[in-house]
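Hi R.,

Here's the chain you asked about this morning:
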Amino acid sequence: MSQAQTIDLEIPIPRIVKDDEGPAFTTREDLIFKFKKQFEEARIAQEMTKAPPMPLEEAALIVQRAERARHARHETLMKLGVQKQQDQMSRQAKLSDREKSANIIKTFMRKYGTRRKEEEMREAEQVLIGMKPEVIPPDAAEKVERTMKRRKEEERKRRQELEAAEAVTKTWLDDNRAVDLRRKLDELCAEFYNETKLNTGKAPNIKAKINVTKMLLEKAEWLPEPELEEYYRKLEEKKPRKKTDEPKQAPKAQPSGNKKKVEIIVPEDVKELQESVATFNSLWVKEDKPNEASDDFDVELVRKEMWTSMLPDIAVSIEAKLKRELKNLKVLEMRRCRKAKAPRQKKKKQKRVRDPLKMSDEEILAQLVGLGIACSNPTTTFKDFVGRYDFCTPVEYEDPSPEKGPSYGSIRSQMIIESVLPFACQRDTLQGVPKGVLVCGNKGTGKTTLALAAINALGATFLNFSPQVLVGKETPSPRILVLMLIRAAKTLAPSVILIDDIDRMFGSRKRSDASKKFKAQLRRNVRKLKPRDRVLLIGTTSFNVLPKACTSLFSKMIVIPKPNFSTRVMLWNHWLAKKNLNIPSISVNSLAFTSKGYTAASIARCCIKADSIRASRTEPNEPLTDLEIVMLLGDAPEDESKPQQTFSFPINVPQPYPTKK
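And here is the predicted structure, written out as tokens:
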């Protein structure tokens, strides 16, 4: 027994959507119908030019003739073979014994030579693939042996050298004073270089300051004294002397001990650095509280320091103000003289935009109709998406295991809100038109039906750019095809571009180069669309993983779950009534409970099969039972019987109307 259906609270579709585009809609549909008729006539004319199919009698005669010719050829070959054998036997009978022996020897040698040649080729192949080791010539073997002996001798000598080197220890080197003096002097010079750079911030010139090197050398007490004295004496002898040279600094007191008096030359850069540090300390550091910051500052000093950094910015701002004031003065003067005109602006040269298509709009539409992309407006309506709101469910029909997810009535209303109503606003402020709507759900949940219903409600141009439409057709290059699609969508606005099973085009699966080019061109051109173009992109997918390149094309997402109990009741009522199977012997409630987890497409397919079974029976009046219909549910495809998938794409998911929890 069927359950009583409740009336849904549907969102009304404004008349402005279709009424404003009435003449354009009619003209567009007539044009598409005309192109379709032309292509159909061209197809029929092309089929007429082909040769008519061959009759069955003529084909049978051709087969018989071919079979007879084959038999005749076989008999001819057999006769020729027998005749050749007889001729050979007669020739052998005429030959003498000596000639017969010679023929036997020739035959044997020919067979033996062929067998020997095959063996040689087989051995060469075995050597080539490594099955048999190649024979090494004696010269090469002797050369390898000499090389091995020479390497062993070199290795033995190297081992002896290492053993001898290990015997020389560090203690033996220190005892014999085998330390290079120049190396130690280089280390001291490097130490002086680093200390001077750390203290003064500037590296010294070591070559010009031999006295400083001497001073540092005197600090090294670990060096032998006689060697240092000899080194100092050689340095003084090598140094060039002039009579006019005078000591730059006053002599200082000689340090205690046997060390010499040393003159320290302070570089000019160090002196300048010391003076600048002293000036800074005198200005900013107080003697009583050197570590505490003070709010007192010299205004003149700050002005002097900051003026150079602020001068460019001040000059730019003053120049802009002067230009603005001069422009205002010119306008006031022109108004005073009653010749007020807008300031003359230079006309920018417009860039010449090359049209890669070089076709008119009608030619583009004709090509899209020929490819099956431009289609007539579908007849599917939102009533075909069967479902209702779950405001309340009768207690006697309560589902023992409640199913999560919104009802089909709320999904239908959400599709109207997101894809139909934004086109009803003013044409100048189309701010609510979404960039694209992605409809997700399992196989058979009605994604394509919902998209076609939205296209019919809009009365928009239907451009079907699905992969199954493009497969197996000779299309232009991806760039030209996408440009034709976008141009036709803008010209025939409002337009809807439908990409059914978009995961086949943008999926993470490996695709050919053509698919990659389609993806790149589609992304590049769809992103350029603006709300005022009145072009909507609708995509459907049953794949729960999509790349970012695909999800970035959409701003809204609608998820269709599997039908719950109340929706399944409505689906069974709809399809049983449509196929005239709604009889008292069939309980819709039991069918709804049994079909839990199945999609709307599975229920529709089950009713269609039941109708065909009833029509094929010898007694058409014999009614079907619940069990027979339920048995047909098992024939559902594997994709439709999968559990409910979770779709978590980075897209704004609108919240549907609240349903029963």
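One quick note: The first strand starts at residue 374 and ends at 375.

Cheers,
M.
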